[in-house]
């Protein structure tokens, strides 16, 4: 009895905390995760890096000015050297940077959607924890009611002391399960706040949506270019263009020279000069950067193959999970109805003395397990549906 009082006090304190929380819908949780979550912030910084790389690739070489003096005439020389991209290395670098930026944009879109998926999944698990808590509290109330009924029947001479002890143990277990589910629910709320980018020093939110059947999905069709695959394709394109740029840089940069000479007594005035600078790849043929670019290309090719494999596996796993969860929900619905009727009939039979207490406890245990499985299958169907929406997104070059 003392244990039951402590468990009841814990449930009352948790209920008081829940009333002080801010109600949050699923849509609000998703929007907060996208706006304030750490995952979307990292992806946002990645797009800034891609833009900076593109700006760097578009830059041209600065001209240089050389001013020299010699004792021989003409004594003064001023020459301007202007580098030119005659091999197309700059164009290849720009195209590579554009592909890198596009890949970062696709990753940013996917990470935003993944942050929304994390919030959606955490919200679903919070709803499932809340449903488990409601079920545990109801079971605790029913178990305590059954305990009081056994005491009344024992006092009336219709039940034994063994029935009272069995009912007391069952009530204690139910109260213990309710307390454990309360702590699990609070842990899920902390996870939800972390996904939303909120402080986790205290419980501040509570989900208010209902855990109903998930919305319909697109089926089992696999998109041809999911966002992870599109990002990996652009990264591979950027790596190939980077190899081309490094190979063209062997004979770069060419430059043209223009200047003036003066200070010759025999030739008064300013004399123009023109010239062309051609690099000679004798000591350095850019082998190191070429080898590094080729290694990056092979890595990008392997990452593209891995992205295709992982995306297809994730989609197939989500499709199978959703299909199985929906099939189990159909069976669970029928089992819940039957188990509820059996519990009601068992209680009536025990109240009238036509059935023993162990049969009632067994019926309640079966009903509790079936209802718990129904809640878990609902959550699994929601999570699988949200995962399919994530991989159903198509790339948008914005």
How does this model look, in words?
This protein is of the alpha+beta class. It has a single domain (2-8, 23-279, 306-391), classed as Outer membrane efflux proteins (OEP) (Up-down Bundle), CATH 1.20.1600. Helix content is 69%, strand content 9%. It is built from eight helices and six strands; from the N terminus they run αβααββααβαββαα. The protein has helices at residues 2-19, 26-36, 38-58, 89-156, 161-195, 227-248, 287-351, 357-391, and strands at residues 22-24, 64-69, 76-84, 205-207, 254-262, 271-277. It has a four-stranded antiparallel sheet, with no helix packed on it. Helix 4 (89-156) packs antiparallel against helix 6 (227-248), helix 4 packs antiparallel against helix 8 (357-391) and helix 6 (227-248) packs antiparallel against helix 7. The longest helix is centred in the first third of the chain and has 68 residues, at 89-156. It is rod-shaped. It starts with a helix and ends in a 7-residue tail after the last helix.
Given as residue ranges, the uncertain stretches (5+ residues, pLDDT < 50) are none
Mean pLDDT over all positions = 85
Q: What's the β-strand tally?
A: 6
The sequence of SSEs as H and E is HEHHEEHHEHEEHH
Q: Describe the largest sheet.
A: 4 strands, antiparallel
How many helix segments? Answer: 8
Briefly note the structural class of the backbone. Answer: alpha+beta
Provide the CATH topology: Outer membrane efflux proteins (OEP)
Which word captures the global form? rod-shaped
Q: Report Rg.
A: 36 Å
């Amino acid at each position: 009895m003392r244990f039951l009082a402590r468990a009841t006090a814990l449930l009352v304190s948790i209920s008081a905390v829940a009333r002080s929380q801010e109600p949050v819908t699923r849509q609000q949780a998703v929007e907060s995760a996208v706006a304030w979550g750490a995952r979307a912030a990292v992806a946002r910084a990645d797009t800034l890096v891609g833009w900076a790389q593109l700006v760097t690739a578009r830059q041209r070489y600065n001209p240089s000015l050389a001013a020299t003096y010699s004792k021989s005439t003409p004594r003064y020389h001023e020459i301007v050297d202007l580098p030119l991209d005659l091999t197309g290395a700059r164009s290849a670098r720009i195209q590579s940077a554009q592909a890198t930026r596009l890949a970062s944009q696709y990753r940013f879109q996917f990470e935003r959607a993944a942050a929304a998926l994390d919030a959606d999944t955490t919200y679903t698990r919070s709803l499932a924890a809340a449903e488990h808590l409601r079920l545990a509290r109801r079971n605790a109330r029913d178990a305590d009611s059954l305990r009081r009924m056994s005491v009344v029947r024992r006092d009336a001479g219709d039940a034994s002391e063994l029935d009272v002890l069995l009912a007391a143990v069952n009530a204690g277990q139910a109260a213990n399960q309710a307390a454990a589910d309360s702590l699990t629910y609070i842990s899920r709320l902390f996870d939800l706040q972390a996904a939303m980018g909120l402080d986790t020093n205290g419980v501040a939110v509570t989900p208010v949506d209902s855990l109903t059947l998930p919305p319909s999905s697109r089926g089992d069709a696999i998109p041809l270019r999911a966002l992870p695959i599109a990002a990996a394709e652009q990264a591979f394109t950027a790596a190939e263009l980077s190899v081309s740029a490094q190979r063209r840089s062997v004979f770069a940069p060419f430059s043209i020279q223009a200047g003036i000479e003066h200070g010759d007594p025999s030739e008064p005035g300013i004399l123009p000069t023109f010239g062309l600078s051609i690099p000679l790849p004798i000591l350095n043929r850019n082998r190191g950067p070429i080898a590094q670019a080729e290694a990056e290309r092979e890595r990008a090719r392997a990452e593209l193959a891995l992205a295709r494999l992982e995306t297809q596996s994730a989609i197939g796993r989500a499709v199978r999970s959703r299909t199985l969860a929906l099939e189990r929900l159909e069976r669970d619905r029928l089992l819940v109805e039957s188990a509820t009727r059996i519990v009601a009939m068992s209680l009536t039979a025990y109240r009238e003395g036509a059935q023993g207490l162990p049969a009632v406890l067994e019926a309640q245990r079966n009903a509790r397990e079936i209802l718990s499985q129904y809640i878990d299958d609902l959550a699994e169907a929601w999570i699988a549906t949200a995962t399919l929406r994530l991989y159903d997104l198509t790339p948008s070059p914005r």
